[in-house]
């Protein structure tokens, strides 16, 4: 993302804030990526300790065999979260997680019949992952340090 130009600063209600926005946008994006990744690691931690523990749940959603999908879910949440937090293979990690989250949107909205209220968190998480699928990592990432992005 580029800094706020003088033309764009003139469009701000308080133009003096343009410098603050410019100086903090990279930090804010990094913070969002790190917090999202850390939250995924926390959420996936229990699953990675028992990678087959969600077999019944994923089969209940129609994903057979559960012995394949449950460990995949565990790895996606736990290791995908680590990769996202540090900004390594950011786009593939975010994409894999996005797929998992879109399934949870469908599950809560349709299968459970909860509609938007039940799917709201998953929708928000999906939007965050979509942002990183499209954007990738920024200069404060392992991807940037090694000079390669997916």
What would the average pLDDT be, to the nearest integer?
Answer: 92
Distance between the termini: 18 Å
What would you report as the Rg, rounded to the nearest angstrom? 18 Å
Q: How many domains make up the 3D coordinates? A: 1
What profile does the largest beta sheet have?
Answer: none
- Segments where pLDDT lies below 50 for 5+ residues? none
Compute the number of strand runs: 0
User: Secondary-structure element order, as H and E?
Assistant: HHHHHHH
Give the helix proportion (percent range): over 70%
Number of helices: 7
- Beta percentage is under 5%
Indicate the overall shape.
Answer: globular
| SSE-based structural type | mainly alpha
What would your notes on this structure say?
- The protein has 150 residues and is mainly alpha-helical.
- The chain has one domain.
- Helices cover 75% and strands 0% of the residues.
- The protein has helices at 6-11, 18-49, 55-60, 66-86, 90-111, 115-135, 142-146.
- The two termini are 18 Å apart.
Name the descriptors:
150 residues; mainly alpha; 7 helices; 75% helix; globular
